[in-house]
Amino acid sequence: MNWTRAVHHLRTVAATCADMATRPASIFPLRVGGLWVAGDLLGGQRELDEITVALTVDIDEVPWLTEPNGARHWAAAARLPQTPAAVYWRSAHAPVWNHVLERPVLVWSAEDGVREDVLDAIADGSARALRPAAPPAAEVTARLADELALSLRALRERTAEYERRRWKPGKVEPVSDALWQASAGYLDLLGATDPHRL
User: Fold this and answer.
1) Rounded to an integer, what is the distance from CA 113 to the centroid of its chain?
2) Closest Cα to residue 9, out of 38, 67, 52, 73?
3) Fewer CB in a 10 Å sphere around the end CB: N or C, the chain?
4) How far apart are CA 76 and CA 72, in angstroms?
5) Block means of pLDDT (10 residues each) for the chain, length 198 residues?
6) What is the pTM of this model?
7) Distance between CA 47 and CA 138 in Å, rounded?
8) Distance from first CA to last CA of the chain, Å, rounded?
């Protein structure tokens, strides 16, 4: 897609986040508190395959590449599956950045609303200046180690849940999907921390 269309999609996602924040918690109990942009939209203008965004939620732990409870319901209402976006769910209680979400920039928050200055900078291709400084190598190593430990814990928990539910009546798909997500996240982090282990 061209640059203008990519920025349009990001603006739409930001507006949708703002709208979803006004919806009743009884219908959408998962509350998204922040929208972050990462990847190619923070560079110069070019053709893109998709936009990269992260959604932060008020949950203590969201293992890498997993979806918190209620994420699919929220995403469907926000029409995210129809958007050409790579969407990552992140905890608001931990850094958003990692080896994929490098130096992301906040676009919308429940407290401050849509950051039009960020969207304007992205539109004109100057958002690189808004990115935070790259963390030191030791901080990156420690962050990825923390994420890997969380991911391994999630993989173990979801494997045990799959074993409990596998032969019971009812759909196993939600449990198997959760296991697949935890597995994918763990393998991705394992490759990022030690490529020779894969």
Assistant:
1) 18
2) 52
3) C
4) 6
5) 96 97 94 97 93 97 97 95 96 97 97 96 94 95 96 97 90 92 96 78
6) 0.94
7) 34
8) 33
